[in-house]
Structures are given as C-alpha cells and as structure tokens.
Write a structure and sequence with these properties.
five-stranded antiparallel sheet
C-alpha cells in the first residue's frame, strides 16, 4: 500500500511541476524585467536640488545685479514694460514668479492690471517631470519678456488679476518690493559717500529777537 501511495505522490508531483515550473519561470522573468526598468536616477534624492542650484547660477549670470538681489531676497523679479502708449501712456511693470503667471501692474498706484499665464516645460529631460527648476522658469520668462515683450504677451493666456494669483499676496509683495528699494537706495547712497562721510548738518535757525 505504501509503495503505491509513494508512486502516486511522485506522479502527482511530476504533473504539478509541469504546470507550476513554467508559471514560476514566467513570474521570475517579469520580476527581473521590472527591476531592469527602474532607472538609476530614481535613487538620487539630490538631483532636483542640484538642478536648482545650477539654475540659480545661470540666472545670476544673465540678469542684472539688482534683479538678482531682488530675486534672492524677495523671490521675484520686476521687469519694466517697454510700451507705455499701449497701456494708456502710463508706466507699467511686470512681476515674474517661479511657476506662477506673470503679473502686470502700475508702479505709481500699485494697481494690478492683468496676469499672463505662460509655461516653459523642460523638453530636454527624457525622464521624470517636465517641470523646470524654479530659477530656470524665472529665467525663461525673463528672457522672453525682455527679448520680445509683445510676442510673449500675445502668446500667453491673459486673465484679470486674481484668477490664478492671490491678489493679497501680490499686494504684500509690492509693499515688500517698495521697502526693499528704499533700503537699497540708502545702502547705495552710503556706499557712494564712503566710510568717512559726515552726516549732513542743518544750518541753525536764527533765534527770534525779543
């Protein structure tokens, strides 16, 4: 009896192996193929940080010292408009933010005029996100705006302020920009006068005669 059961078990095992082994081999092949599809850069958490650092260095080399200082301290860059006649003859400017619409406004009144949505995807990377590093996005907008303002405005999606940007935040940014400019002007004035400059003296007013 025992030998017969042993023979039956061996036959059943042989039949199962004919069915299970090919299936196991297929699963193993899929597992190895999946492992090969995992890119090596996925294990590099510092890639985005290095890309942003490189982008900041490139931005600094392209914009003016004032614009770089503005971006470094405020997180935005202001660009003056070139066509005042097209805007009623008044002065106007733009605020460039990373990955946000460009905002136009009147510097004298701080009244927001419009927001222009334009994107510059990173088409050079065959992997990962097509989103540019923050500083590269700012540089792309700066180059397009200073190179051909009218073309950028014509090709962008224009909306009234507040559609995608927080108008309250922009108002605060304009206030911060004003304070930053005042502090920068005082610093430049002090540097021009030099360390030995004496404070301005005011002439004494004549005392009234009694």
């Amino acid at each position: 009896m025992a030998p017969a059961l042993a023979v039956s078990a061996l036959v059943a095992l042989a039949l199962l192996s004919d069915i299970l082994l090919p299936r196991a081999a297929e699963l193993w092949s899929r597992y190895r193929a999946g492992r090969r599809r995992v890119p090596e850069f996925a294990a590099d958490p510092g890639r985005e940080r290095r890309a942003e650092q490189t982008a900041r260095e490139l931005l600094r080399s392209c914009v003016s010292e004032e614009e770089w200082s503005m971006y470094r301290e405020l997180g935005l860059i202001r660009v003056w408009g070139r066509y005042p006649r097209a805007h009623g003859g008044g002065e106007y400017a733009y605020l460039i933010y990373p990955h946000r619409p460009i905002v136009s406004y009147e510097p004298q009144t701080r009244r927001l005029l419009a927001e222009y949505c334009v994107t510059f995807p990173d088409e050079t990377r065959p992997y990962g996100s097509s989103r540019l590093p923050d500083s590269d996005d700012v540089l792309a907008k700066w180059m397009a705006l200073t190179g051909d303002e009218q073309r950028l405005i014509d090709q962008s999606n224009m909306h009234l302020p507040g559609r995608q940007v927080d108008v309250t935040q922009v108002a605060r940014d304009l206030w911060r920009l004003s304070r930053w400019e005042q502090a920068r002007m005082r610093q430049l004035t002090a540097e021009l006068k030099g360390p030995d400059a004496q404070p301005e003296s005011h002439p004494q007013q004549p005392r009234p005669q009694h």
